[in-house]
Amino acid sequence: MIFSTRQLSLFACTSLLFCHATTHAKPMEVHARLAPQARAENKVALTLDACSGRFDEDLLAFLIRKRIPATIFVTKKWLDKNPRGVTVIKSNLDLFAVEDHGEKHIPAIIGSGRTVYGLAGEPDIAHLQREVTEGAKAITSTIGIAPQWYRGASAKYDAEAITEINRLGYKIAGFSFNADHGATLRKKAIVDKFKRLQPGDVIIAHMNKPQSDSAQGLSSGLNDALKQGFVFVRLDQVEMQKMPDQKTKRDKS
């Protein structure tokens, strides 16, 4: 069968659109909880993202005062801009584990022009590799400990990025409890969310926006959790398990 030039052009365009649709699936969040423990304990894990921006000293001061462990995901950008925050973290490595949030806070999605929450993703695998490895190098040189976990900007990924991050030797840090929605919630909303905290939850929140309500809301919510008998752990102290359902009611709330 012989096709005209116009038919071939239409076929090529249709093929490209099909490939784009199939290779660029909607980015997903990775939801995970603590694996069941041998002993019945109300363990939960607090993870804090330090994307760029400033250092929420009030929040870390509260965690230190209450002796609440946390796993902190930092970018190279944040490390470079916040020497005071670095000093506080390094002085409390018995409480805080420091993990990789990337070099420049670029989402782990591959493809030119793709964005998540207004953040541009990576044009190709090579750029993703740099984002992950340069972020890790900055932590190793600044904190003195090599990271084992990775959380991408926006905490959304595509399948290709997840495969590459794992190939580089890093575990994806999922979560089950979104406490402050990118440091956008007001104090009361954060406190109300903590009323739904459950044993095994992995909390995601932020410590890079002191102008937000995150510090006050998290301090109040975490204090209530302590009173209820919750025990806080770092990710390096427990095993994790991926949740089969990528969407939960509590994440939408």
Automatic annotation (TrEMBL):
PROSITE patterns listed in its UniProt record: NODB
First and last residue of the signal peptide: 1-25
Family annotation (InterPro entries): Glyco_hydro/deAcase_b/a-brl, NODB_dom, Polysacc_deacetylase_ArnD
UniProt keyword annotations, A-Z: Signal
Every NodB homology domain range: 42-253
UniProt superkingdom: Bacteria
Keyword Signal: yes
PANTHER family tied to this protein: GLYCOSYL TRANSFERASE-RELATED, SECRETED PROTEIN
Name of the protein described by the UniProt record: Polysaccharide deacetylase family protein
